[in-house]
Design brief:
single chain, 188 residues, mainly alpha, globular
Length: 188
Amino acid sequence: MFLVTIVDTAVLPTAQAVDLLILIQAAAAPERSIELGLYAVAGSTLGAMMLYYLARKGGARALVKTFSEERIEQVRHKLARYDALALAVPTALPLPLFPMKLFVMSAGALEIDAARTAITVAAARSVRYFGLILLGRWLGVDAGPLIKQNAWIAVAVTAVIIALFVWLNRGRPPGAGTDRGTAVDPQE
């Protein structure tokens, strides 16, 4: 699981295949699920930090080659406002509109603190993976089909979490706690 999550995070995203694998393995071997979760979190965090350092070395050019400038600017604004906490939502929840890779690479290119980035990724992935483990242990072999039938609940919970995050940070001025500039310069 360690290597699978490194590859999934840093190289080739597998569109929630890791989530399903964790769910199935937790249901099939609940006695090994804690170990499974620890390996998954460690691998995903390592993969994210590999991306982070590649983007940090390549600067904004690494971002512009991979993502549109509009998307980069949206993420840059979120990172300027919330710092490494902006990574929490796309890392904990599988949101196609805000891919984790874009946030991690942006954090590296914009030189968000590496330790805060790693801690945020590890904490958010812990919530995600251990939540899936609990679900797999609780539902057993019926977990996969049940989740597919009730995906709307996950969407509703995601919307509530995002709304809560925005509401809690409503009074925080843009750029609070950061001294980074506001523009992404591809010539960096």
